[in-house]
Amino acid sequence: LGLCVGYTVAAEKGWQLVWSDEFEGSGLPDASKWNYEEGVLRNQELQYYTRERMENARVEDGKLIIETRKEKIDGHHYTSASLITKGKAEWCYGRFEIRAKLPTGKGMWPAIWLLGAGYPEHTRWPECGEIDIMENVGFDPDMIHANIHTKAYNHAIGTNKGDKMTVAAPHADFHIYALEWFEEHMDFFVDNIKYFTFDNEKSGNDVWPFDKPFYLILNAAYGGSWGGAQGVDETILPQRYEIDYVRIYQWK
Q1: What is the reported pLDDT for 9?
Q2: With bands split at pLDDT 50, 70 and 90, how would you rate the model's confidence at 14?
Q3: Active-site residue among 67, 135, 180, 242?
Q4: Facing residues of 112 across strands?
Q5: What is the DSSP secondary structure assignment for residue 232, as one 8-state letter?
Q6: No. of H helices and E strands in the chain?
Q7: Residue 133 in contact with residue 179, Cβ under 8 Å?
Q8: 61 CB burial (10 A radius; 0-12, 13-18, 19+)
Q9: Rounded CA separation 194/201 (Å)
Q10: I need a surface site. Which of 143, 161, 184, 223 has the fewest CB within 10 A?
């Protein structure tokens, strides 16, 4: 019933489903849809992202589980996973809808986000553009953030554009995190409540690099410049980030 209702509501609003993962079956995530990031990559984070490792990313009971663990690998003390559609699927404009239950605790930093498909081979960050559909940090567990990053507007120079919304215990229940991305603007939602809009100022790529394909990222970071800003708590681990579905629509 939930599946049918989700599709019906989107269809009534004028959207057509073009890509989805309902995370059926069990085992590793669908290799036809997902690639992996691997290693320690950014933001002074503590976790090592692993590849094709069931302990960190698996499908079970109709959900994708990304698990952050305290364990040693390649000289690092924590593991997690970052799944990406790069090389499998990329989109320009559309509705991106993800139903998820978040991990929590001091140090956790789960996210749902998009990067320009040219990164890193053909363009650098932030010129490539970044769209953060959902970010949450464990030291502020009830706050959901949406942000965009471009050459003109990014956190490195203190100009990023975004907003936040309080959601009671997003680690206890599933919520729908969504982006509706148009040529003229982007709208960000939690459970169909719009809380941030970013407009195309029509002043060029430095502000709006969002007219080309992007790929999707689902990851659970631990520690780092934001997730670890108030320290980390090892006793919370392991933590599970549960994603019920990913559905991507484009305008009919």
Answers
A1: 58
A2: confident
A3: 135
A4: 134, 218
A5: -
A6: 2, 17
A7: yes
A8: exposed
A9: 20
A10: 184
> Tokens in use for 77?
């003390």
Query: Is-catalytic flag, 135?
Result: yes
Our measurement of the distance from residue 145's CA atom to the centroid of its chain's CA atoms, rounded to an integer in Å, reads 11
CB 170 within 8 A of CB 101: yes
Residue 51 has what pLDDT? 97
Residue 190's alpha-carbon distances to 3, 43, 196, in angstroms, are: 18, 25, 10
pLDDT digits over 125-139, tens only? 999 999 999 999 999
Contact criterion met (CB below 8 Å) for 41 and 7:
no
Instruction: Give the closest residue to 42 by CA, choosing from 105, 100, 144, 119.
Output: 119
**pTM confidence score:** 0.94
Do strands 185-190 and 175-181 pair parallel, antiparallel, or not at all (unpaired)? antiparallel
Letter for the amino acid at 119? Y
Query: CA 136, CA 160: separation in Å to the nearest integer?
Result: 16
Tell me, rounded to whole angstroms, the distance of Cα 68 from its chain centroid. 15
Which residue among the candidates 45, 130, 180, 242 is catalytic per the annotation?
130
Judge contact between 100 and 212, C-beta under 8 A: no
Q: What is the pLDDT of residue 252?
A: 76
Please name the residue that has the structure tokens 């490195």. 156
39 vs 142: CA distance, rounded Å:
29
130 is catalytic: yes
